Fold this protein.
Amino acid sequence: MKNSHMCWIGAACAALVVVAAEAKVPWDLYPRPQMVRANWTCLNGEWDYAVTAISNTVDRPKAWQGKIVVPFAIESKLSGVGRDLVPDEFLWYRRTINVSKKPGVRTLLHFDSVDFRAQAFLGHQELDVPHESMNEPWIIDVTDKAIDGANELTVLVWDPTETGAFGSTGKQILDPASCFYHRCSGILGSVWTEEVPEDHVVSYRVTPDIHAGTATFKVDVSRASAALVEVEVLKDGQPVAVGKGLPGRDIVVKMPEGFARWSPETPTLYDFRMRYGTDAIDGYFAMRALEKRRDENGVWRFFLNGKPYYVMGTLDQGWWPDGLLTPPSEAAMEFDIRTLKELGFNALRKHIKVEPLRYYSICDRLGLIVLQDMPSDVPRERHGMKGIGGKEDTVRYGFYRRDLKRVIDHLYNVPSILMWIPYNEGWGQPRALLTHMTLDWVKGYDPSRLVNGPSGWNDSEGGQVLGNPLNNDWRGKRARTQHRPAGECEAADVVDSHSYPEPILFEANDRRISFVGEFGGITYIVPGKEWTGDAKRQHTYTKEDSVAAAEARYGKMMDILVDFVGKGLGGSIYTQTTDVEREMNGLITYDRTVVKFDKAHIRAFHKKVFDAFEKAVRKQP
């Protein structure tokens, strides 16, 4: 069954895609920029593949159906297959990997993302229990089950998309429509091996404290030995601070006087070298803090590095016409991020997915704040189940919480991530009690970042449930934000409104920062750049027929934000970075060949908001 969705790329993006498609080994850069080792092997590229039925498959494939390019979904053009996988099918992969068995050396096999359930085998032996989650890496020590030399690696994948009971899907759906997109199945991230000593660093956390002037490292190791963990902090290649201590304990590194603070305007990073016995890793971190504090007028605002800061971002789906959920190349990712910077944004809301770690490293290096969503389930009512807060969301709650923890662990060390967003618009969100438990747990598990309240419709922290905005009966129902009774915990740092096309503002909140988490969605279609020419299948909130009209509408929305800033608004997220399939409301076309608006005009609109904010946070004479 061939994939029926349209694929095209324009000239600018084509150059990026061709690099990925023609390279013998796509995505051949080290996948983990904050924990780099020397001895590694990239396993991306062509693998054998086969598809079998789940009902009558009694053995592994005897014949393989062709080649598939890893790490691209089987549905994508860049995979070389372009075939939809359905829930009653298995997807199989096969290739040879080489393992060099040496005394005192372990070989780790990494899968950065597989959607949804994966099982891996060397020869006949299964390597681990099945792994379920597209949001976190799967790392397996294959040393004891591998033979010295060539080994046949087989991977079995099952992906139910939205018909499954537990896994998050983001916006994948079997029948794409509206703002829901094409399914993505199989291996979606880099596959690689690395050699490590038996005593090695498994993971670490680094937590900056700009007020104390310290960076605290906590290191998990494969097994405790007499060795200490040693950390040497570098700036411009020169040592500026050192620390050492036991694994599992806090290693507090005192930063030098006048240390640099990371911000979108000055994205300063510090490199480090960590040693544990004979193991050595290279990484980086940043000194920064996003806090909830009151301004000079007593209004809650975002404070970045001790100063009031307006968060101006876009909703970013991270979807690609030929790679779908997997970006075609590093250059393609950097193009998106640089363009947002050039348009005058200082942030993005990473919606519905977890990106490759190299994506976040570009945000770290170039200076773009990331507000990270937990990829959510497709709204349950889309496949015959109850809607918001239904029984199904309670049933899957344990899996969701474990998956959320794995996402936070995976991304904890990313400096540019400054807020977690556990729930979006009620998707997969249970009722008030379990929602509160989630938010409260996140605040305790990672106190170094802020936590968005339920983003959009269901602000259970205020003791009030908002109906589905798609019923068109919601405006005005929450002109005032309510709260839990005095003395009761209200876990979120932010109260978040969603409104299309124009933004709305909840009244300035006496516990949380007022935030517009989604608004806008101005559709301007660049001729020849439609994913579908059928107007009935295009998803629009408001449509303009010219660049001038679209820019004028955008400017009027910024004027609304200028007014809101004076009433307590702390930040805003415009929908969205790029067109995506049937959604044509991006600032950039889906193929990344056209930035629709004049960058100088958009920056000027933003400056009005920033200027109003600087005035609003100060006491007026």
About this structure: The mean pLDDT is 89. The first strand starts at residue 40 and ends at 42.
